[in-house]
Design goal:
Blueprint: E1 6-9, H1 15-27, E2 30-35, H2 38-45, E3 53-57, H3 63-77, E4 82-85, E5 90-92, H4 100-128, E6 131-136, H5 149-169, E7 174-181, E8 194-196, H6 205-216, H7 225-236, E9 244-247, H8 249-268, H9 270-274
Parallel strand pairs: 1-2, 1-4, 2-3, 4-6, 5-8, 6-7, 7-9
Helix pairs in contact: 1-7, 3-4, 4-5
Length: 283
């Protein structure tokens, strides 16, 4: 592995981001890691090594703050090779019961923060004509579950952003991947990482049952964050990493099932789809 690479990881004080930062430092990489609480980040990582670890307090919705963190990283390490947009949280509840402010806030954190980070780091990656951007999405962005409509919308947006970014950046030798995990034991379903609003409305039985099942499953999810972190490190060493990577058996199965259903539906409605075009005159 090329341990001279410099990683920039957001949302690093807990969950997958924290596990990844620890793994990277164990492997000898240099890491700039962001958090809203830098003291919490330092204590969680438990490493005091200014030559390889740069903890940064960053407001990811403030472009100037992000730019300052990028400049600090370059001053400390001289380059940035891998960017991991990991910061984010979950939200479950019915759309009609979620407040507009709550919806806007999760889009700010899950979508616009990632866009802002990419916006500020891209000039350096283009200058290097190399780099790798990993956006942490979710299988919910492709195959949602009842009650997770708004969260799924944020992750679907992040996936679409990553797809088009790959087209834009191909000529610069910059790769992108959206990683879409299913359930991992990262504390995602705890109060720090999940905005949960129990429905008080009649009906919505599927929403209520799904919320109950997910919350009861906290701490026993099948996904291993240590293995996920090792996979992310391996991706960064690949010359041709995948654009989409579903992590976890459940993620793979859900994505495969939906792809099959979509293909079937696409062909079933093919005649209607192409009938919307202007009729071409045949010679």
């Amino acid at each position: 592995m090329n341990t001279s690479k410099v990683w920039y990881v957001t949302g690093a004080s807990q969950g997958l981001g924290l596990t990844l930062v620890k793994k990277l430092l164990e492997h000898g990489y240099r890491v700039a890691a962001t958090s809203r609480n830098v003291q919490k980040l330092k204590e969680a990582v438990g490493v005091i090594d200014s030559e390889r670890f740069l903890p940064l307090v960053v407001d990811l919705n403030n472009l100037d703050c992000i730019d300052e963190s990028v400049q600090q990283t370059l001053a400390a390490f001289g380059r940035i090779d891998v960017v991991v947009n990991n910061a984010g949280y979950g939200m479950t509840g019915t759309v009609e019961e979620l407040e507009e402010k709550e919806i806007r806030t999760i889009f700010d954190v899950n979508v616009f923060a990632a866009i802002n980070v990419v916006k500020k780091i891209l000039p350096q990656l283009r200058k290097q004509r190399s780099g790798y951007i990993i956006n942490i999405g979710s299988v919910a962005g492709f195959v949602g579950a009842p009650g997770w409509a708004v969260y799924s919308a944020t992750k679907a947006a992040l996936a679409a952003f990553t797809e088009v970014l790959a087209l834009d950046l191909k000529e610069f030798g910059i790769n992108t991947t959206v990683v879409e995990p299913s359930g991992f034991r990262t504390g995602f379903l705890t109060t720090d990482s999940l905005a949960y609003k129990a429905s008080k409305l009649d009906g919505y039985e599927a929403v209520k049952e799904t919320a109950k099942r997910y919350l009861e499953g906290n701490g026993i999810q099948p996904g291993d964050p240590d293995k996920a972190s090792e996979i992310l490190i391996e991706l960064a060493e690949s010359d041709q990493p995948p654009l989409h990577l579903y992590l976890g058996r459940d993620a793979y199965n859900r994505a495969a099932k939906k792809l099959n259903a979509m293909t079937t539906s696409l062909e079933e409605w093919k005649t209607v789809s192409i009938a919307a075009d202007f009729q071409t005159v045949k010679d």
